[in-house]
Backbone:
């Protein structure tokens, strides 16, 4: 679908002499201040089978015997060695991620999932501890990654609450949105005080069809004036708010990007590649935008591999690996590698036991990658489950791993690096106090 | 009806306001009420459709619409003749869809079918063969006014659905190779298509246990067992091919049972029901459907979503309860009668409350036009004609709704999506700062450019009815805004029109029409159907 959209057009054509919401931005060269931080989420929609992302080779025999048709041969794995000397194998089509692991630019966090509080297998099976709402359901588990509220029903996302915190500390000197999605509206970015922005790579946000004539300007004024009036209809007001923000964001981005030079880093021409390229282009002009803290949201879909899984991952993994690698290279090019951390999220991991159609079903705890110059790379954080159906880490008999690290701990580690003091973390992650460790140590 | 449309043509040719041309017959409904209804039950009003509805009244109009089945989507070749590879070009189907929305007579059937397709989702993102989609679409079209169980049966045995959610070739588990039955279809059949995750009261509120927690509709073990009950179905056998236990994908016709791949052990399914060992695949399927149809939760679960698609994002519990009770029993003891349900939704006092122009509007009533509806209503109002190769689908895609390519089984947007305030607003999930601007640009394209070479709009009626700016704005209000445009929007549209210029009188008149239409069609007031 990306091919239907042209090249990135933002900033290519400004709307002329529009008098829109003023931003008070001074022209400035793009440069990174010492106090810039960006978080970049890559959400793998559908539930990535991270059992095949990285494999602890000490458990390879159990892996191979249980995974059956989904098992990767050693020749289909790229061997790496963790900082502790333990052997691991990345899916060989994640070759760039494997290289970054070896170069200590990427870390793995094992068996992360939605939890209200730590839970043992006995507690889970006897329902003697709080169990996340609607486990194994896409919609609910996506929501719980976005909100970090395993109890469900949170109207705000943790990225939105983080943006609220940034606003409360006046860390950004413009009204450009702190949370910016390349993948449409994201629950993760819904805050109480702040509103997210969305940019589609390759689509202009500047309103088309205006010039400087009096007639044209009168028509534009008619449109913008309406946005300031109260219709008394709540849905109309909500739409007004979004279009107002759109016009303001387009103006700010257009101004900032018009002063930027093209990136030298080549991105793959894929959906995720285009999203991460757009993120890098916006990071390039963060100073012009007046931003010291930014949260970006990207996504890649089609991970719901109930059948024909190996072929699907063979398509998705190169896109994931090459796009994230190019993104890291771009942050090096921009001199902000230390200031930018990218990380994955996904609905859930998948059953270790295959389905009858060479796929896997919905499960729970999964493995994630974190990359950037500030990451304690080449290391595995958390613990892999025991590869045994009905074993000590299984919810039942199909290899749905009970997580040993919570989304709250994962997110709180990212937010601590972002500059949120410990005392403020429970505002963003209300369940965090239920866990003994609030920082997993994979950043700085 | 023929007589009436002839009358209207004369009225328009004389440059008369079609609403005024109506004065010889006492209107059953006001312009306002008729236009509102057509935004709920059709792809938006046109002067002719308003006049027709006014003459017929809602009940006769519904009866006539229930009988119409005129719109089809063209079957597509399986193989791309130039490349020799499977044909994955859905654009002729997408184009035909928009031709139907703009010109098809069976407007209500199309609207309901589209709503059902947003519940029973198959996406070309993963089910890629173009020829799969016309037959899939016809299941909604042909069952839209049947029984919900017919829809459940047709979609469950649809090879397109079989491919998308893996009911096709879902073999029984194999202890030797260590596989289990695929849970995908069993899970989504219950979670998304029939009952949802939580037991509901008839008014749509969750049923609570003694500790005030919602009661789940099923457990994981029910999914595992239902998955086993649904094993043993494969794709139809392609003409000339030999039937196999696991046929390759073929999308014409219905899936059929292969008993050798059906798990015949006993199962515990929804509602505490037990399937005895030894049943056939068809018997198990019937047992599962029987059990699902008995779930009281199905009525509010399905009713609420249909209300959201047609009328309002946040129906009151009482509205849901009234429709649910019709879903549960149409008055003749039949559960799931879609004609009765659709009638109940569209004639409900809550849906019709704002028909009285003097009524105080409920500030939370209504819903946002999703992109497909937004584009269709604009095109109808602008008297558009679309060719078979029209590119309206490309605009819908830019606006966040890639027709037949929803990103996931959760469709283009989720029925659970809310505003920050908590107010349900499903369509807002795809209304972002990006797509808000894209909507304005689509209006710009419609009025000042062209969507494509074959899509033509005709602004003549607006020029003819816009002898002065105030008459123009009134006519636009009649066509696009239920003849009840807010005074703020009237002033804004008039201001833009008054500033418009042209080299001569005709050019100026056209410029005024375009300027006023731009302001109205880009306004948030127009994005929301109240």
Residues:
């Amino acid at each position: 679908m990306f091919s239907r959209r042209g090249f990135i057009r933002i900033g290519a054509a400004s709307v002329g002499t529009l008098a829109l919401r003023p931003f008070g931005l001074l022209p400035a060269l793009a440069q990174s201040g010492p106090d810039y931080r960006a978080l970049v989420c890559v959400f793998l929609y559908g539930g990535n089978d991270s059992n095949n992302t990285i494999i602890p080779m000490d458990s390879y025999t159990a892996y191979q015997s249980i995974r059956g048709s989904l098992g990767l041969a050693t020749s289909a794995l790229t061997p790496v060695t963790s900082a502790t000397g333990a052997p691991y194998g990345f899916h060989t089509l994640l070759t760039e991620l494997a290289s970054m692991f070896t170069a200590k630019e990427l870390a793995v966090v094992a068996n992360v999932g939605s939890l209200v509080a730590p839970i043992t297998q006995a507690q889970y099976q006897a329902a003697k501890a709080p169990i996340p709402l609607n486990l194994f359901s896409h919609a609910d588990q996506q929501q719980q990654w976005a909100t970090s509220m395993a109890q469900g029903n949170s109207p705000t996302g943790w990225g939105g609450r983080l943006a609220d915190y940034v606003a409360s500390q006046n860390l950004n000197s413009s009204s450009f949105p702190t949370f910016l999605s390349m993948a449409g509206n994201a629950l993760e970015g819904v805050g109480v005080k702040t509103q997210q922005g969305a940019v589609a790579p390759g689509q202009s946000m500047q309103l088309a069809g205006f010039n400087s004539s009096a007639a044209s300007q009168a028509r534009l004024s008619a449109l913008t004036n309406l946005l300031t009036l109260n219709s008394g209809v709540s849905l109309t007001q909500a739409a007004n708010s979004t279009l107002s923000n759109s016009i303001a964001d387009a103006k700010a981005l257009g101004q900032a990007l018009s002063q930027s030079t093209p990136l030298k880093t080549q991105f793959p021409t894929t959906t995720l590649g285009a999203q991460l390229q757009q993120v890098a282009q916006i990071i390039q002009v963060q100073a012009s935008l007046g931003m010291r803290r930014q949260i970006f949201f990207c996504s890649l879909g089609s991970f719901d591999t109930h059948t024909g899984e190996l072929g699907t991952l063979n398509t998705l993994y190169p896109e994931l690996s090459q796009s994230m690698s190019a993104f890291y290279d771009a942050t090096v090019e921009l001199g902000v590698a230390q200031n930018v951390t990218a990380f994955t999220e996904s609905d859930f991991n998948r059953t270790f036991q295959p389905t009858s159609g060479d796929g896997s079903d919905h499960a729970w705890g999964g493995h994630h990658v974190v990359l950037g110059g500030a990451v304690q790379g080449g290391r595995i954080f958390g613990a892999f489950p025991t590869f045994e159906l009905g074993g000590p880490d299984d919810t039942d008999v199909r290899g749905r791993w009970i997580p040993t690290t919570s989304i709250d701990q994962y997110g709180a580690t990212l937010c601590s690096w972002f500059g949120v003091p410990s005392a403020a973390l429970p505002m963003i992650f209300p369940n965090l106090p239920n866990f003994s460790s609030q920082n997993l140590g994979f950043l700085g | 009806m023929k007589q009436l449309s002839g009358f209207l043509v004369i009225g328009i040719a004389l440059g008369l306001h079609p609403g005024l041309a109506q004065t010889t017959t006492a209107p059953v409904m006001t312009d306002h009420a008729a236009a509102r209804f057509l935004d709920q039950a059709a792809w938006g009003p046109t002067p002719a459709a308003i006049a027709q509805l006014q003459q017929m009244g809602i009940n006769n109009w519904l009866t006539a619409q229930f009988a119409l089945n005129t719109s089809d989507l063209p079957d597509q070749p399986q193989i791309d003749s130039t490349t020799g590879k499977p044909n994955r070009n859905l654009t002729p189907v997408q184009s035909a869809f928009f031709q139907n929305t703009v010109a098809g007579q069976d407007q209500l059937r199309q609207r309901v079918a589209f709503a059902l397709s947003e519940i029973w989702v198959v996406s070309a993102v993963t089910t890629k063969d173009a020829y799969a989609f016309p037959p899939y679409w016809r299941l909604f079209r042909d069952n839209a006014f049947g029984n919900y169980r017919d829809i459940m049966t047709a979609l469950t045995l649809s090879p397109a659905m079989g491919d998308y959610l893996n009911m096709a070739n879902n073999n029984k588990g194999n202890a030797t190779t260590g596989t289990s039955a695929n849970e995908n279809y069993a899970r989504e059949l219950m979670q998304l298509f029939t009952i949802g995750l939580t037991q509901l009261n008839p008014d749509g509120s969750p049923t609570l246990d003694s500790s005030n927690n919602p009661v789940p509709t099923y457990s994981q073990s029910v999914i595992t067992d239902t998955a086993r009950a649904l094993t043993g179905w494969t794709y139809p056998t392609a003409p000339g091919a030999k039937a196999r236990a696991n046929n390759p994908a073929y999308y014409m016709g219905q899936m059929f049972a292969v008993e050798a791949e059906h798990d015949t052990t006993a199962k515990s399914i929804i509602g505490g029901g037990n399937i005895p060992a030894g049943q056939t695949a068809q018997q198990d399927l019937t047992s599962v459907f029987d059990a699902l149809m008995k779930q009281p939760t199905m009525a509010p679960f399905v009713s609420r979503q249909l209300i959201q698609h047609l009328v309002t994002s946040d129906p009151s519990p009482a509205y849901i309860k009234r429709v649910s009770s019709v879903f549960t029993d149409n008055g003749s003891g039949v559960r799931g009668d879609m004609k009765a349900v659709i009638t109940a939704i569209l004639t409900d006092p809550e849906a019709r409350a704002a028909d009285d122009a003097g009524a105080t509007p409920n500030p939370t009533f209504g819903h946002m036009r999703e992109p497909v509806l937004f584009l269709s209503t604009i095109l109808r109002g602008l008297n558009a004609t679309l060719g078979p190769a029209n590119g309206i689908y490309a605009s819908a895609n830019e606006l966040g709704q890639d027709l037949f390519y929803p990103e996931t089984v959760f469709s283009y947007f989720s029925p659970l999506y809310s505003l920050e305030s908590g107010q349900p607003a499903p369509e807002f999930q795809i209304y972002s700062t990006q797509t808000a601007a894209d909507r304005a640009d689509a209006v710009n394209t419609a009025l000042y450019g062209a969507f494509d070479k074959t899509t033509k709009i005709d602004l003549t009626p607006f020029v003819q009815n816009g002898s002065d700016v105030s008459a123009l704005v009134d006519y636009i209000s009649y066509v696009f805004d239920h003849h009840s445009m807010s005074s703020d929007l009237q002033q804004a549209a008039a201001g833009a029109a008054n500033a418009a210029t042209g080299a001569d009188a005709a050019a100026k008149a056209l410029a005024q029409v375009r300027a006023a239409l731009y302001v109205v069609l880009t306004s948030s007031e127009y994005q929301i159907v109240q």
Chain A touches chain B through 83 residues (CB under 8 Å). Confidence is low (pLDDT under 50) at residues 1-32 of chain A. The domain at 36-207+260-434 of chain A is CATH 3.40.720 (Alkaline Phosphatase, subunit A).
